[in-house]
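Changelog note: in this version the structure field was regenerated for every chain. One regenerated record is shown below for reference.
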Amino acid sequence: MNQEENVLPQGPPRATPWRIVVFFVCALAGGMIVVCVGVYGYFVWRASAPAHVSAANSALFTVVRGESPHAIARNLEQKGFVDRAIFFSFAVWRDGLAPGMQAGIYAFPSHASPRDIAHAIASGAVYRTDISVTIPEGFTLAQTDKRFKQTGLFSGDTLARFTVADLQTAYPFLEDAPGGASLEGYLFPDTYFFDPAATASTSVGKMLDNFGEKFAREMREETRRQGKSIFEIVTMASLIQKEVITEEDMKLVSGILWKRLAIGMPLEVDATVAYAVGHTELSLADLQADSPYNTYRRRGLPPGPIANPGAQALAAALTPTDSDHLFYLSKPDGATVFSKTFQEHLVAKNTYLR
């Protein structure tokens, strides 16, 4: 037997372990690349496709100064301009738009994609640059300050720092107010439009200008004719604004409160106590609070306004309706019940407030 006959047949060479590892790593990486490319492509498509949203895109969208792209994306989704915030954020990231987000008020067409919206905001294609601020009737100075902060205007500053003395020279209707008083009562409630760079000073000026227009010369002359001060009228108007709703009720309550002052009766206005203690769910203990604003314990008007009254409340304070009523209460539904005597008032309380 020769040597070749003793050699066994050889199979294919066996793969070494490292080659197997490399094969699986490459397969896994390839799969991940395919998935990533697919996901990336999907996001590119969704970011560029018109948003299928239910909101009417004729509405305006506000971007406040300093708002982050993430916050803008979230607001766009919440208000129905994009169906998913993540596609807007993706467009901002992909196109490098984050540093260019600009404050303002925008109007987007109905076919706008998240990418279209991102580029509109980054380019500053605003419908208008002003920021709208709505101050409802009866807002306090603190609530007004908070509303401004929510819009991002004059961050770090406050309306509360201004006193009557700061502005008496510029606004004659402040002349009979105590110099150390705040501007509570004079920041006229309305919808305002401010430049994003507006300061607290310019904002106060615009609101005081509005008060001067609404509390016109004829009203000031009538105030003097009645022997009252504008400060007293504004203070009374703030009580009326917080107590009742309708114009008719405001004038009736005005007549009652002026009558109580004339006969030396405490005003006993719940809203003044709420202003003093900082909440509206009043307890018997709250009614005994030792505060100059507690009109259950102190006779006369409180030291100053407790809110910013609107035009109807100011007019009611100046032109009260005379009646035989001396008491009133507000039912849970907001309607006002008037009574001539304290006994009638107690019956009304037991009927409607139990």
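Spot check on this record: The CA atoms of residues 214 and 311 lie 7 Å apart. Residues 131-214 form one domain.
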